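Why do we bother with holo predictions? Because pocket geometry can differ from the apo form. Keep that in mind while you read this record for pyroglutamic acid.
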Amino acid sequence: MTILITGFDPFGGEDINPATEAVRALPDTIADARVIKGFLPTVFREASSQAIALIAQHQPDAVLCVGQAAGRAGITLERVGINIADARIPDNQGHQPVDEAIDREGPAAYFATLPLRAMERAVKEANLPASISNTAGTYVCNHLLYSLLRHADIHQLNTQIGFIHVPYLDTQAEGKVPPVPFMSLPNITTALIRCIEALVATTT
Ligand code: PCA
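The structure, written out:
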């Protein structure tokens, strides 16, 4: 089994993105699955076109995209990508779409196709906080999730696709007022490993 896992570059004034730090820390093999790592820009459309190019290149069985969600205290497994781009802050190329459809021809939403409940359970079994989330927001992360599910639908790909949001790292949370929740890098990395193990276990 081949799994593509992606992170994003820092955005919104941060120096690091916990998603990329954790993806970088992953081993290249997990539960006998080959782990391909991709690093995407926090830029509308560019992130999804680069991810689609990686899918074409590596033909993964599953794609797990990871992003930062400031303010969330645990690992959140996104259930749904919605057909809207509505940015509170500009992306890393200055684009700030407001109330825009991602794809005028596309349905309102797609459900992620990863085994979310099994992944949630696996993270919790490692004594780390996890839950299923019903909104990936309306920024670049949701855009990526929706666009990849749309791509898989149009091209009838068997690839399983999903998105995981992770909290700030402790170093990012330091000094923020009011205080924001965080997780350590080893804990976020462990959670991602548990998710991949659960994914492999449910599909092989
Ligand atoms: N989080 C943002 C985009 C990049 C990232 O890591 C989001 O939640 O949309």
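The first strand starts at residue 2 and ends at 8.
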